[in-house]
Amino acid sequence: MRIARTLGVFVVALALEGCAAVGLAVVGGAAGVGAGAGVEHTMNGIVYKTFDASTNELRFATLKTLDHLAMPVTADEKSEKGWKLSATATERTIDIELQQLTDKTTRMRVVANDGQIFFKDASTATEIIRKTAETLQDDRDAAKNEPNRKRKQT
Amino acid sequence: MMNLKQGLALTAGLMLMASAALAETTSGGSGSFSDLSPGNQNIARALFNAQHATANGPQPLSLNQIAALKGSHEGWGEVFKQMKAEGLVNEKNLGQVVSGYEHHLHDSHAASSNGRTNVTTANGHAFASGSDNGHTPTGKWDETGSDGAGHGLASADHGHDVTVSTASGATNGGGVSASSGAAGGTHGGATGHAR
Questions:
Q1: Which residue, A58, A148, B97, B159, shows the most beta carbons closer than 10 Å to its own?
Q2: Nearest CA in chain B to A87
């Protein structure tokens, strides 16, 4: 009976392995003054960040970032709550979920699966979020400078 | 007779499953961009980068989706026309898109090689800038996040390059102050609070 109970707990723990709410969140990042600030890590290697961007903008910034990082995109589809993307890297699959919180706020969840059940590559997931934040900022800067550039050309 | 009906039903079921699998592959669009030649990949990238994402505008296409469009059209000009018609690109013609992309590539290469220091605050304003010996940032990234409740710290050694930019308010950055080592070798540090 005890064995069954222990096994039950183990199965439930396995099932909840991917759930953010269960992981103890650790907020921060040492170089986090910039794009990395506000990145939330969970103990199970899943990384989150909320952006002040629409799902549309964030999806495009994510696609650009994955391209810059030479991680081929394998899936890019709408989900119930926003958008879902997948990419690959050496012995890794990257799962990204963009959850629309409001029209102008989107939460990004990145899981870099390390090829084994329990192991997640948190550093790669963190880098993807950091680079996406940079791309988003670059795009906005470019959009701001665009009218000036056009004025200079004419 | 019954067997024939069962066989037909089984065949129909299998065909449905096959079409569903095919649809899944198409929506994923896996591998189509990587199938392009290097030259075509450059054009696809140029079109990809020329898109502008807005909150309520059309969904920008992924590289695979652009590559798939190329597959169904005669040439890149047609792909460009379709993207322009959908409001995804603003350029006048494909030439502008490609030359703009090349400029962008050169600019980013120049920016990465001149070793400038740029520090921007949470609202995107430039705070400090300078140049140095071109060293790369040495800020630590602690993947365990052990630095505590969102207090970020980036530091630079003598004359090292610091580039700090924020996620445009998404990080809710508080005060950011920084000074960077110009070639002379002053200490550089950037501290900030983030909630």
A1: A58
A2: B30
Interval B122-170: pLDDT, tens = 444 444 444 434 333 333 333 333 333 333 333 333 333 333 344 443 3
CB distance B30–A59 less than 8 Å?
Answer: no
User: Among all chains, which residue has been given the structure tokens 């430039």?
Assistant: B126
Residue of B24, B101, B164, B171 to mutate, testing the A interface (most A Cβ within 10 Å of its Cβ): B171
Report the relative pairing of strands A82-89 and A26-27 from DSSP bridges.
unpaired
The β-bridge relationship of strands A105-113 and A92-102 is antiparallel
Q: What is the pTM of this model?
A: 0.59
Segment B44-101, tens digit of pLDDT: 999 999 998 888 889 999 999 999 998 877 799 999 999 999 999 989 999 999 988 8
Q: How far is CA A98 from CA A69, A76, A84, A119, B126, in A?
A: 19, 11, 6, 22, 29
Question: Closest residue of A to B35, CA-based?
Answer: A72
pLDDT tens per residue, range A75-131: 999 999 899 999 999 989 999 999 999 999 999 999 999 877 778 899 999 999 999
The alpha-carbon radius of gyration of chain A (Å, integer) is: 18
Nearest to B143 among A49, A122, A133 (CB): A122
- Chain B residues lying within 8 Å of A134, measured CB to CB: 165, 167
Radius of gyration (C-alpha) of chain B in whole angstroms:
25
Nearest CA in chain B to A103: B55
Q: What is the predicted ipTM? A: 0.70
Q: Do B167 and A37 touch (CB under 8 A)?
A: yes
Return the closest-CA partner of residue A125 out of A14, A51, A44: A44
* Cross-chain residue pair B51–A60, CB shorter than 8 Å: yes
Read out DSSP for B137-156?
A: P-----TT-TT-SSEEEEEE
